[in-house]
Specification:
The complex is a heterodimer of chains A (313) and B (276). With 313 residues, chain A is mostly helical. Chain A contains 14 helices and two strands. Chain B contains eleven helices and ten strands. Classes of the chains: A mainly alpha (313), B alpha/beta (276).
């Protein structure tokens, strides 16, 4: 039902601003989902996760501008690129136990930030990359269609979000997913029943970073301007908070987290200066009273309602 | 599963020696587990090195000296997960399961080394993937039925009672299709009823052809179901033999059993001897 609602949402809300918010929500949903694969399901904390998002945006933008590849190629290619980068980071850091993985990814994010800021001849440094082309469909005997409006781009984001949900869902509900969850739950026991934890950590992290890169690519072709800020702390903290507030280790939680983070700050614009203070307060309250995420609170609420309805009948 | 020659031992531990910072936990321990579906028990006072020995056999610890040969293959330096793939599985002394997954998911996870499905099979939902999933679901229900846990299949493992958590630990190991199963104190903390039930389960495992190495403090359980017993004391093997032989061994009585008369008598049903 939610899927159908999401499908017709931009037709219902005709306002450009609302449509922009929906696109933004979709992009953040991909970012939150990709982080949740590593954080919620694998149980590792990749502090530098947003670097993969930014890296995907840069990869996509540069592929489009330097090699003139169409969006339909830069999207999967940037996912592939960040996925491989994720594996390269994972290979040494998963050999370590404890918090080192978090620290290594944080260091990686710093390195990526320095590279995109200082390699001016290639990434244009702090000036950012502009004029990233919007996705285009060229149909024979038909006019070319450019996804330059919020309305048309929404469906690209929608498709990518669906893809991310699909991949995450299938991954988790399989033998591979069970192995990943087993590592989170109890690594020695996982080892004792034949789960090669190192290998499955790499798979989970690889999939997470791949999705993050695709999210970055979708971001780049929507805003069509990217700056090194994308790799910085802001997106990292936001992604972490989305997953924490929404609910760790659940697809719905990640989506809800992304929703909260795009919609609430915007609706609070009516109170102007107090906006961020109130938003901070809401986050605090939700973390204190729903430490396992808003989604768990909703689930509990729904199940209580259902039992009440049943007991009345 | 390779058919193995009859005369070969299922597992041979040769001169295992391990020290932890000057303290020698095992000194030159050697023994064999026969290839005839026996129940071999490992007993000894706390700190004797029983769990250390189990950790070495299952690959969690690497011995300083000596070797472990399983079905004619040297597994001394293998990782735990590849030892599991060879059909040698274990349970843990302290309750060890996947607490935030349901009982059924716990058991399904246990089938890991019996299945092959990869990431792409799952994403593309191939026929092979679906068939494999169906197969292990059926088998998982069988295992749960065998352990009387079918009713609790949708309960989170962390919410089970203590005895059921212990049983689930065994169910997870059983899913891996063990040929040799190392059980680390399966009845510790169980009440007499539960422990009796656990003895039945262990016996039925033996009947289904699983060889078992049992570490246990509960003498009634050990004497009741073991074919052979090995006694460890301070890292050294001090005795090996049938339950009768062990009960009569002077050394064993001195370091571990104390007065053994009650263990063999049938009148002391309610009393459980917990070792030194």
């Amino acid at each position: 039902m939610l899927f159908i609602f999401a499908l017709i949402a931009p037709i219902v809300f005709t306002d450009v601003y609302h449509r922009h918010l929906m696109v933004l929500f979709g992009i953040f949903a991909i970012l939150a989902l990709s982080l949740d694969v590593s954080m919620g399901y694998l149980g590792e904390l990749p502090l530098g996760h947003a670097a993969f998002f930014g890296l995907g945006a840069y990869a996509s933008a540069l592929l489009a501008l330097k090699l003139h590849l169409p969006f339909w190629l830069t999207l999967p290619l940037s996912g592939l690129f960040t996925g491989i980068m994720g594996l390269l980071i994972g290979i040494p850091s998963f050999r370590l136990k404890g918090p080192y993985f978090a620290i290594v990814t944080l260091g990686f994010a710093q390195i990526v930030y320095l590279i995109v800021t200082n390699w001016v001849s290639f990434t244009r440094g702090p000036m950012g990359i502009t004029q990233i082309p919007a996705p285009v469909i060229k149909l024979p005997y038909f006019s070319t269609f450019t996804f330059a409006t919020e309305f048309s781009y929404y469906y690209i984001v929608y498709g990518t979000v669906l893809f991310s949900i699909f991949v995450t869902e299938k991954l988790i509900n399989s033998r591979t997913g069970r192995a990943i969850l087993a590592i989170r739950e109890n690594e020695p026991l996982a080892l004792s029943i034949g789960i090669q934890s190192y290998y499955f950590k790499l798979i989970a992290f690889g999939v997470g970073t791949m999705l993050a890169g695709m999210g970055g690519s979708v971001y780049a072709h929507y805003f069509r301007v990217i700056t090194p800020d994308l790799v910085g702390v802001y997106y990292m903290v936001n992604a972490l908070m989305m997953v924490m507030v929404g609910g760790v280790g659940s697809i719905g939680g990640a989506l809800l987290g992304a929703f909260i983070f795009t919609v609430i700050p915007e609706t609070l614009r009516i109170v102007e200066d107090l906006r961020l203070i109130i938003f901070g307060g809401i986050l605090l309250v939700s973390i204190i009273y729903l430490p396992k995420g808003v989604i768990r609170g909703l689930e509990a609420l729904i199940s209580v309602c259902l039992t009440r309805i049943r007991s009345k009948n | 599963m390779n058919p193995m020659p009859k005369n070969l031992e299922l597992l041979e531990a040769n001169n295992l020696t391990i020290t932890f910072g000057g303290l020698s936990a095992l000194k030159n321990v050697s023994f064999q587990i026969h290839n005839n579906g026996e129940i071999l028990s490992l007993i000894g006072p706390n700190g004797a090195g029983k769990t250390t020995l189990l950790n070495i056999l299952s690959g969690f610890l690497k011995t300083n000296e000596g070797s472990v040969v399983y079905k004619g293959e040297d597994i001394t330096r293998l990782d735990p997960f590849s030892i599991a793939y060879r059909g040698l599985l274990r349970t843990f002394q302290h309750i060890s399961l996947f607490p935030n997954l349901t009982v059924l998911q716990n058991v399904l996870t246990g089938f890991h080394c019996k299945t092959k499905g990869g990431v792409f099979g799952a994403i593309l939902n191939t026929k092979f993937f679906r068939k494999e999933e169906e197969g292990i679901r059926t088998n998982a229900h069988e295992i749960l039925n065998k352990l009387d846990m079918e009713k609790q299949k949708d309960v989170l493992a962390g919410g089970l009672s203590y005895g059921d958590q212990r049983k689930l630990g065994i169910a997870i190991a059983l899913a891996g299709g063990p040929e040799l199963l190392l059980l680390d104190e399966p009845v510790s903390g169980m009440n007499p009823d539960e422990s009796k039930r656990m003895m039945d389960i262990i016996r039925s495992l033996k009947a289904s052809g699983v060889t078992i190495l049992l570490v246990e403090h509960d003498m009634k359980v050990v004497m009741g179901i073991s074919d052979r017993i090995i006694v460890l004391n301070q890292g050294e093997k001090i005795a090996e033999g049938t339950p009768q032989e062990i009960c009569q061994s002077e050394d064993v009585i001195r370091v571990y059993l104390g007065d053994t008369s009650f263990v063999m008598s049938e009148q002391t049903e309610t009393y459980t001897y917990e070792g030194l």
